[in-house]
Amino acid sequence: MYSSLMSWISLPCLIVTTLLSPSFNVYSTASAIETRTKSDQLVKITLFIKKRDNLTYEEFHEYWSGPHVKIFHSVPIVRQNIIKYSQFHSNESVDLTQYGLTPVGYDGGVNLWTRSLDDLLAVFNDEEYLNVVVPNGKTFFKYDEMTAMYGWEEDKWDHE
Ligand SMILES: *[C@@H]1O[C@H](CO)[C@@H](O)[C@H](O)[C@H]1NC(C)=O
Ligand SMILES: *[C@@H]1O[C@H](CO)[C@@H](O)[C@H](O)[C@H]1NC(C)=O
Q: Taxonomically, which superkingdom (predicted)?
């Protein structure tokens, strides 16, 4: 990002731009590893999920990626409180053990970012979420075997 900008923005213009931008330090210095980004100001939870045995891996990935997201997004408190959402799909065609790595044993990670733990809990305790999203999740992953990790994300770099 920075190097491509540098190729066409003149130096005085760049200085003005960076001073005016609240997040200028993210991209403008070599010390990017010490800066805070938007994700850093949010809390994060990752829910680790395992596919149900009655779906193929292909069905699991497709359903989670498409129809489930529509249902998830249809719930107002989800749209309101979840600032950022991404899915980490396990590529089961790669056997990590051959590289000396132990697979974590899950098929996916649901990454959710909110402004606070309260905002996150408000989603999980919301009546519509409980009546719509949770039952839908139970149709394609083993809900009772879901595990979670809660904390914060530190973005260190993100090259183009
Ligand atoms: C899964 O891994 C294989 C082997 O690296 C790769 O060919 C394939 O494209 C990957 N699938 C996805 C969806 O990235
Ligand atoms: C898998 O089983 C669940 C629970 O019985 C069911 O709701 C879902 O429709 C099934 N999925 C498929 C693809 O058969």
A: Eukaryota
Which ligand ends up closest to the CA of 139? Answer: 2
Q: How far apart are CA 41 and CA 44, in angstroms?
A: 10
Specify if 43 maps to a domain: yes
Same domain, 85 and 11: no
Distance CA 143, CA 138 (A): 5
The pLDDT assigned to 36 comes to 58
Total domains in the chain come to: 2
Q: What letter would DSSP give residue 30?
A: T
pLDDT score of 152: 96
Q: Which of 60, 92, 93 to mutate to test the pocket of ligand 1 (most atoms within 8 A of CB)?
A: 93
Residues 52, 95, single domain; the answer is yes
CA-nearest of 108, 117, 90, 97 to 147 is: 108
Whether residues 92 and 13 share a domain: the answer is: no
Q: What is the pLDDT of residues 94-122, one digit of tens each?
A: 999 999 999 999 999 999 999 999 999 99
pLDDT on residue 33: 54
Does residue 83 have its Cβ closer than 6 Å to ligand 2?
Answer: no
Residue 23's pLDDT is what?
44
Ligand 2, atom 10, lies closest to the CA of: 139
